[in-house]
Give the backbone structure.
Amino acid sequence: MDEVLLAYMRAPRSYTGEDVVELHCHGSRAGLREMLRLAVHAGARPAERGEFTLRAFLAGRLDLAQAEAVVDAVQARTPAALSLAVEQLGGGLSAAVRAVRRELLEVLAQLEATIDFSEDDVPDPPPEPLLEQLARGRAQIDGLLATARAGQIMREGVRIALVGRPNAGKSSLLNALLQSERAIVTPIAGTTRDVIEEAIDLEGIPAVIADTAGISESHDPIERLGVARSRAAVTAADVVALIVDGSVPLAAGDSALASEVRRRSTRDMDGGEEAGAANGGAAIVVLNKSDLPLCVSPTEAGSLLPGAAVVAVSALAGSGLDDLRHALARTALAGQPAAHATHGATVVASARHRDALERARHAVADAAAALAERRVADVVCTDLRVALNALGEVTGDSVTEALLSEIFGRFCIGK
């Protein structure tokens, strides 16, 4: 059928920790199908999603955080996101979490000793050293959680909506950022009738940038549909860039759009939730056409969205684009340093990990409060076990079959 290369890897030095045989053929679809048919006929079966990495986890070759990093590396959309996944695959997060577990286990062991030997008049350990250990553990958890927002943005990306009045230069700006003629640009206002989305690497952040139809009142049914889709894109965006045509004075349409953006920000803050990966109410003002005599000052443009960054650009000349990329990235991160800013730093990038760490943090706080109040050791130990179980969910030291199925079900075939 074909001439193949056979690679035999003895346990435990294979990826899964088992004896593994790999067959490498020339790669034609017909050849692959025939090889698969013959393998199944001989007793093999197709692998389940994530089965190889699951076997590596069960064999102890990888812990759970490292296993999850495999799929993050496969799905990484920017070099920075890939770097983040590779560092987690190297065990950095796992080591940090296990360091916290060691602190808590030491406290738990001392308290359990007083319970186990209560009839032998074993004195209770003084609470102060134990409280210091709990404070160290909580501080370590806080340090990890401080990276979670930026880490999740690097992993999952952000959505950015370019909004503005017709002919403000949104499509030209999209083309300039992409460095390609993705959107049709004409001097005729209202050329863009639908939302155009493209992926972009925004200083390491995976981003989807949407060029929207100019938002204005119209009796044209097609244009009205485009405006409705534009408003939906604004609602779904993590960051909104309000594009202002600096070559003409501000108009009522600019103020109306700014009001819509402000209302969106207020809704997000009132709801107490984050929109997508980034700051729900995040927005900037882009003063476009700076190559022409400006009729709008940066201060005037900034008054549309008080507190928002203002960036002057020329989509046509290409000036100010680096400043715009930087402003968008900073706004998406809400002023926090990018997760890839310090190479080798331990970063929490998964919402699942963040949830587990937050539960661990609350449990440690409860344990410290109970210890400080001199409550019975059983109460403190119960809180510590809750914290340890939550931390174990990150590394896989305490995990259910349902959780494993959920995690490895996200993998593609062959990983």
Remarks:
- Residues 89-147+345-408 form a domain with the Four Helix Bundle (Hemerythrin (Met), subunit A) fold (CATH 1.20.120.430).
- Residues 183-193, 269-280 have pLDDT under 50 and may be disordered.
